[in-house]
Specification:
By secondary structure, this protein is α+β, with helices and mostly antiparallel strands. The protein is built from 2 helices and 2 strands, in the order ααββ. It is elongated and about 70 Å long.
């Protein structure tokens, strides 16, 4: 069972974002912190976009080399990094509502 204090904290936390959007300055600390939520919902589309981009880049490379793109030899998902909108490391920019996700993957294709 939730206490009245827990309910008050939850209600206050949910009310902070609209206040900040309206330009209300929060005093007495470092301000609100924003965390990335729903990462699993964006992970699959992010990886799919990285895979499409890798293939497009490989096709362009093959074309410029006068070759045909062959089969995919290997793929490595690599690292997904989270940073602030300005590119700062995620832990250094908790006050930013905007987050940037970046996936680094490695794909090796054969050239025919």
């Amino acid at each position: 069972m939730k206490s009245k204090r827990t309910d008050l904290v939850t209600k206050t936390a949910l009310a902070v974002d609209p206040l900040v959007q309206q330009g209300v300055a929060l005093m007495g600390g470092n301000g609100p912190f924003y965390q990335l939520r729903g990462f699993n919902e964006v992970k699959a589309p992010l990886l799919a976009a990285a895979t499409r981009n890798a293939r497009q880049q490989a096709e362009q490379f093959a074309k410029e080399a006068g070759a045909d793109l062959g089969r995919l030899r290997s793929a490595n998902q690599g690292v997904i990094s989270i940073s602030g909108a300005d590119g700062s490391q995620f832990g250094d920019d908790l006050g930013s509502r905007m987050k940037r996700l970046r996936v680094v993957s490695t794909f090796q294709y054969e050239l025919d």
